[in-house]
Amino acid sequence: MIRTFLDNGLTVIVHRMPVDVAAIYMFYNVGAKNEYAGIYGGSHLVEHMLFRKIEGLDKSIDELVEGVGGYFNGFTNYDYTAYVEVLPLESVELGLEIESKRMVGALFDPGEFELERKIVLSEFDMNENEVDFRLMYRASMTAWDTHPYRYAVIGLRRDLNKVSRDELYRYYRRYYNTRNAVLVIIGGLPEEKAIELARKYFGGLGEGGDAGSVETWDENMPGRVRIEIRAPPNESPRLLYAIKVPGVHDIEGFREVVLFDFVVSGDRAFTYGLTAREPMAVPRSSRLYRLVEEGLGDVVYSYYEPTLMNNLYYVIVYGVKDPDKVVGKIEELIMERPSDEELEFARERIMARLSFSMDAPSKLGQLYGLSQLFTGDPNAVIKAIEDATRLGSDEYMDFASKLLSSPIIITYR
Amino acid sequence: MNRLFIKSPVNDVAVINLALNLGSLHEPVPGIANVLIPLWRMSDYAKELERVGVSFVIEKGLDYLMVRVKARYSVIPKAVELLVKTLLNPPIDRLDDAIREAGTRITLSREDVITLSIAEALKLLFNDHPYSRHPTAYEYKLTGITKDDVRRAIDRLRAISLTVVAPEDVVEIDLPSANYVEIPVRGFGSGSRDVRLEGKVQTAVVIMYPTYGIKDVERSFKMDVANTVIGGMGLVSRLYREVRVKRGLAYYAYSMYWPLGSSGVFIAMAGVRREFVKDTIDIMLNTISNSSLSDDELAMAVRNRIGRLKVMKESPEGIANVHSVIPTYGLPSDYYDRYINYIRNLRPEDVAHEIRGLQQPVIVTVGT
C-alpha cells in the first residue's frame, strides 16, 4: 500500500491486488457529524444529488458505470460520505473521471432536487417500515439531545421536507474539495500507474473549501432509561438494549470495543463486500446466544459500526417473554470475566474476519479509506484490530465495567 | 457429486459452496430445512467450526439449501471434517428449541414487506407446486415436525454440488450425492392480492411473471438481458427511470430474474406510499410491456452483463457464487463463455420477443 498527497491536498491511497477489477473510492470528511438544525439528513440528500447532473459528464453516472458492467454506490454515514465504483480494469479511468467531476461539477438542478427530496423521504419510509430501525432511531434520540448523531444519518423528516436546494448546494461547495477528501484505488492496477492516474484526473483541481473535521465530543447519557412501545399483533415482540461505546477517535477504546464485540457477539464484519455477500451469522458459541440457549428469547443479534465519536452498541432479542430477565442476563453476560478459551475464540475470529475483510478491492478500500479519515493513518484501524487480539481478561473487565451505567432499554411488545 | 474447483486469487482464504437437496423443492416435509438450520448450528461440531474461525451460513432457497463456508485456508481440512459431522449429526433432542427459533425467524421474515410480497406472489403463481413455498417466509406448520421427520431428512440428505474457491484443490466432502431433479410446473396461477399490515409506512408492490428456467439455456440468456433492460441494471433500467428518476415515487424500483431449475420467475418491485400504489402498478405494467428496444439500449445491456461478471468475481465468495450454478444444475463447464458469446450476438428483436412473450403476471401489494 502506498499513500501520497497531491499538491492540492488530496490524499491518495493505492494498493495492488491480483484481480481484473479495481475499486475506486472517494471519501469526503462530511456526514451527519457536520449537520445542524435545519439540515439534519442533508449530507445524505447531497449524496443523492451527486448522482444527478454533473457538469463535464456527457451521460449520467449510472449510464456510464452500468454501461461497462461496473458496480457503483454512495454511502452517507455519521462521519463521512463515500462514493465507489468497482470496475473492470480496462474501465478504471471512467471511475476517476466521474469522481473528479463529481467533486466540483454537481449542478443541483432545482427540478432534480425536488425529485430527490421525495426519493429520500421514500427511503425514510422504507426505513420506518423496519421495526428495528424505529427502535434504534428512538434509542439514538434518547442518547443525545444536541449531538449531531442524535438523528442518525437519515436525519429529520421536518428538515428533509424544508431544506432548500441553495443551502445544500452551499454545503456541497463547502465540504467537497481536495483537502477534505481521500481517494482510494485498489485492484489490479500497478501502484505507480494508479498514482499517475490520480494526478492526471485530480492534479488540476483547486484547493478551496473547508475541512469537515470536528472536535469530538459526547453528551452524558441520562442514566438507565426504559421505554415501552406497543407492538401490533403482526410483529414479533422484542427488546432492544443499547449501550454507548467509544468511537475510533479513541483508538485504544476502539481496540477494546473490538475485543468486547467478539467476546459478546462473536463476529462482526469490518467491511462489507459490495459485489457479493459474505457468509455471516451470529456464532452460537458467542455469549449472546446463551440468551437463546436459556430460553429467554428465540433469536438474538447485535449491531455496531465504528464511528468517529462514541456511538451506540445495540443488542436486539426477539421472542422475549420476560424483559427484566433478559436485561439482567445481558448485563451478566457483559460483566462476566472471559475465560482463556473465550479469549482464544475471540482472537481466532478477529483474525479470520480481518483476513476476510482484506480479500477483495471493495472491502480493503473501505478499511484504508475509513482508517485514513478517522485517524490520519490508513493502517491504524487494521493495527487496532490486530492489537485487540493482544488484550486480556483484565482489560476486558476494565472496559466492560464502564459500559453499564446508563443503558437504554426499549421493550416492544 | 458434481464439483467445481476454481483457483482463488488470494492465498489465505478459501470459500466452499455446498448445495444440498433441502430447498423448498425437495424438502421431505415442508419447513424441515428451516428447523434443521438452527438445529445444525446448535451442535457441538458447529460450535467447534466457529472456534476455529470459520464463518458459515446455511441458506434455504427454492431449489436447494446452500451451505456457504469461508475460512482461512490453513484450517480448511479441519473445517470440512467438522462441517460434514455437523450436517450428519443434528442434536435432535433440541428439536423443540429449533422449531421455536425457526418460527420466530419466519415471523421476522414475514414482517418485511418486500419478503412477504414475494412470498405471497410465489403462492399465487405456483399454486401447489413446491415453488409456492417461499424458503423463509411461507407459513410453514413447524410444530408438526417430529424427531423421526428429522432423522428421515438426514438419511435422505444428498449433496447436489460442491464449489470450491481456494489456492489448491484439496477439498473433498464425504456426503452421499444426487443430481438436481426437476419438478415440472403443471400450470401457473394468476390474480392479485393485497395484504394489509399494521405499523407500516410504505407498501411493497410485486409483479411476478413465470418465465424460463436455467436449463432452457438460450432463452434464459435472452431473458437475462431483457431483465437487465427492464429493471436489472440499477439506475439506468427502465423501471428505475420511470418510477424513481422521472417521478420520484419510490426509493427502490427494480426487477429480478430468477432462472431456477424447474421454472423461472421475473419479478418487478417498487416501494411506495399506499396512495401511489395504483399509479405505480400502471407505470410498472406499461414499462414492462414496452417491447421496443434500440440497438444502443441492447448494446449497453450486453456490456453491462459482461462487465458485471468480472466485477462480481472480485472476491472469493463472489467467484463461488457466480460459478456454483454450473455444478448445481449440471450446466456445461463453459457456461459463461457460451453466455457471453450468445448475448453478444443478440439482436433487439430477440429480446423484444421475450418481453412480448411474458405471460399474465400475478400482482401483490403488502403494506399498511
From the alpha carbons, calculate the radius of gyration of chain A and give it in angstroms: 22 Å
Q: Give the percentage of residues in beta strands of chain A.
A: 15-25%
Number of domains of chain A: 2
Helical fraction of chain A = 40-55%
Description:
The complex is a heterodimer of chains A (413) and B (368). Chain A has 413 residues and is α+β, with helices and mostly antiparallel strands. Chain A folds into 2 domains: 2-202, Metalloenzyme, LuxS/M16 peptidase-like (Cytochrome Bc1 Complex, Chain A, domain 1), CATH 3.30.830.10; 225-412, Metalloenzyme, LuxS/M16 peptidase-like (Cytochrome Bc1 Complex, Chain A, domain 1), CATH 3.30.830. Chain A contains 15 helices and 11 strands. In chain A, the strands form 2 sheets. A 6-stranded mixed beta sheet of chain A has the order 1-2-6-3-5-4, with helices on both faces. Chain B is an alpha+beta fold. Chain B folds into 2 domains: 2-166, Metalloenzyme, LuxS/M16 peptidase-like (Cytochrome Bc1 Complex, Chain A, domain 1); 191-367, Metalloenzyme, LuxS/M16 peptidase-like (Cytochrome Bc1 Complex, Chain A, domain 1). Chain B contains 14 helices and 10 strands. The radius of gyration of chain B is 21 Å and the shape is globular. The model of chain B has no long low-confidence stretch (mean pLDDT 95). At the A-B interface, α2, β5, α4, α12 and α13 of A face α2, β3, β4, α4 and α10 of B.
